[in-house]
Amino acid sequence: MSHVASGHERVRAAFAQRAAALAATLLGTGPVEVPVYDAPLDALASGDNGSVALARVVDRLVSGRRTDELWLTLTVLTTVFPSETLLLEARRNLATLARADFFVWLLAETAQVAYERGRGERFAEVLEDKVVAEVDGCARSNRNTGIQRVVRETMSRWYGRFPVRLVAWNDRSNAFQDLTAAQRVRVLQWGKVEPDAEIDRDLDDNISPILVPWRCRIILPEVCTRGQSAVYESIGRYSGNTISAIGYDCIPLVSPEALPPPGGTDFLHYLRVLREAEVVSPISRAATAEFDGFFSAVAAQNRPTPRVVECELAADAPPSTPGSLGLGRSLSTPLLVAVGTHEPRKNHLAILQASEILWREGLEFEVMFLGGAGFGTSFDTRLEELIALGRPVSARRGVSDDFLWSAYREAAFTLFPSLHEGYGLPVAESIACGTPVITTDYGSTLEIAERGGALVIDPRSDAALVTAMRDLLSGGEALAKLSAECRAARLRTWDDYSDELWAVLTAGATLGAFA
Amino acid sequence: MTTADPSTTSRPALFSAVAARLDLIVRSLGRPDRPLTVLDPSAGDGRNNRDSPSAEPSAAVRRRLVALVRALKPHEHWFLAAVVTATLPHALFVDEITRAVDLSDFDRAADLLIAAAESEGSATLPVVRVVEDAVLLDVQGLLGTDGLGDSRRVAEEIRASAPEGVVSVTWSAAYGSLVEASDGSPSSSRDRDPAGTVIVPLRGVYLLPDVCDQPTRASKVMSLASGSSTATMSIGYGLGPLLDVELYDKWPDEPADDPRRFSWHLAAVRVMDRVVTVSSTAYRELAGWKSMLPALGVPGPTLVEGALGLDAVEIGPADERPRIVLAGADAVTADFETVVHALSLVGASEGDGASLGSKPLEVVRISAPAESSDGSRDPFLRTAVIGHETSFRVRASDIIVSMAPYSSHDVAVESLLAAGLRGVIARTGFGAELQERWSCVTVTQRDELALADAIASAAALPVPAQVSTDASWKRFTDLVWSSAARL
């Protein structure tokens, strides 16, 4: 009859398994099974309580004095990614203490950390020479804007085609574990399975082993939180794993006024991670120039910097959308659509100003803003003033994807005179829908515009915006020409993007990752 | 937008002040070939524009304001807003004025200006002084003890070397406006005149010698740089708070923490005309940052490479036992932890020929001038020995240790190295610069084992003869003032 393990027995058994896994990795003693969490204790008995394996590991550490092996040892024994402080203390002790004293210190310190911050009852699986993608943000969030869309479109294409292990942070945000079933749905089946408030029920019960990357390529497709950044910086610097990341933009660094306080500090900490990365893949030429600039500043401090390899983002549209917007609006009045949150960077006050000038000239058109409430602008006040004057202008928030695509298709043209973008998805999406767009004449939006279908202007000149809108509203050839360009424009699909991104972010990773 | 009708509101003092400020604008912008015909003939010379003799009715003042709004060009709207409201206006406010004018809504523009004048200065109605074609030196950084390393020292040197005609200014409470700091005491003018005299520049140059990391101040400098006729210039200190955020993020729970605040400083600098850097390292860092700006559609400032001056150092006779002089302002940015561990390793190593032997190490610490609380110009007179307090002057046998993981400039360390002392420096950008110029060893950051070896090696070197240094800041300040003159 199987013996049901007590808490202490469980911790002892898990420690023995982790020590064996550690020894197997560092000493090449063969694979170690990762038992299921609630395996009967007698099924876990291995004859070694971990001390023999650990003694051999310590011999290896003392003779080799390798910081990466020390990092692995601390992670596996504590079940927590070690802080830089702990790692440096361990390195110091390894250099200065006698073997026996170091062994005692290691046992005491790791037991203490595991007890205070770790999950001593968990088993460990060492992922060796693998490609690991951390998708914690998308796994937990029901948002699906910008970064979340990129991650979900990409991971759903990678999964099953490429040898990638998707991981999330554990509930204490100090170690990796596999995604729960609910988290996999959020990341891989977004839009196919309705997100549900109950979806996270299994998070609290997650008892999967901690996952410890060893000589892996860790891919970061999201922007890290401040706490995660400190861990990743240490991983990149000491662990022997390499990091690659998508680079979205440097707006918080270059344009602090574009964020509501206290936004931006997390991003500045995230740059600590990118400093230590092997590859950063920005989403546009403009974003590439931003990251290149940042890293050349880092290089001025005599530090190595990552390779920066552009991989332009995709933007395709669904083949069709259900009918018209159904808002009862007159189809004879041109509809102009502006997509984006109402914040100073999006320059929506310029759109209102230009529209009012043209309405006063007698032009007839309707303007619809689609986007979140935003911050830091008198947009709402000005919008209400214009509505009070009877102007055909509206702002809709929280619209569905179907509504958004219908709006793109029903618009005569769209407006996106943003002051600073990493990419500018609404520009690419508008063109993908066959709808011309007036957008900014520099940065990433200019790059998209160069493929056709867009009229570019200086976004800081209301007069330029007025002229461009007047030209397209005049019924002349300008709009027809741009529409034709839209139809002919080369569309970059998510398949294109995800394939290219995989090649860029895994380049130079150890061959074992692809075995 | 205000809905009040100023013409029916009884605010005689405000409107009297506004009337006088309108006269000031007319006198400043009017030319024989462009007469601005909105001057009140009874307004006097406009210098004492708080107590204008005009008892002009508010409706008449408002009509004159509307006429002036109608007459001015868009590029003059910043100046209009600054003088009428007696503040440095935010860019969004200036845009609002311009947009009202573009819609021929001159009444709306006038109402916005009057409402802003009322909300900004109704309690004190400060006098506005237009300073034309002058260099304004912003000495706000000399008011407190804050600063980025040597920035306070730099500001002091620039101020001390200012040519005649330079106007020193600081900021009013809540960073609303620039006020005069004419006699070296920024608050003196306000002591004489509680309302203060608000300075509004017209053309000329605004020179920022320190770090402008307070968001309100930074956004107003941005507006000044991008919207006014005044050229702007600053000193480039390097990007430490952004490149090594963990060293400068001292108050993680406060929204206005250092790294994010520093990005506000850079936001102001990105629309300036010129930046003089404090070192080659700072130049290269700022060049990298500047190459990020096209994504925002701005070219960034012209960068001019400079190098800070050096301090004179008094060196005493060599002692038989080397002393470790530890540089750095605080334990985090100077990484004292690594140094302390390295010193323990040096002390622990015995008889291998590279150690300092069995004698106990003496470690003393120097502080950067920015940390000064006594106003001393000599950083080496104010020191602390780890374990007890003392004062000292350096000895020829001392070894300078600076393990700051990030450095783009360090006047104290370079002055000591220039004086001939042996040094062990972290392999930062500035560490490499120092190694090119002076005799010192560089080691990897945070590596106490390498540091211990380097200290032991340095101690084994012969004590160098003292080197005479050109302890002068003149070359740097000359570069600053000549750069300003070219704007």
Automatic annotation (TrEMBL), chain A:
UniProt keyword list: Transferase
Database matches in Gene3D superfamilies: Glycogen Phosphorylase B
Residue stretches spanning the membrane: none
One Pfam family cited in the UniProt record for this chain: Glycos_transf_1
Domain Glycosyl transferase family: 333-484
Protein name as annotated: Glycosyl transferase family 1 domain-containing protein
Automatic annotation (TrEMBL), chain B:
Record protein name field: Uncharacterized protein
Region (Disordered): 36-58
Organism: Frondihabitans sucicola
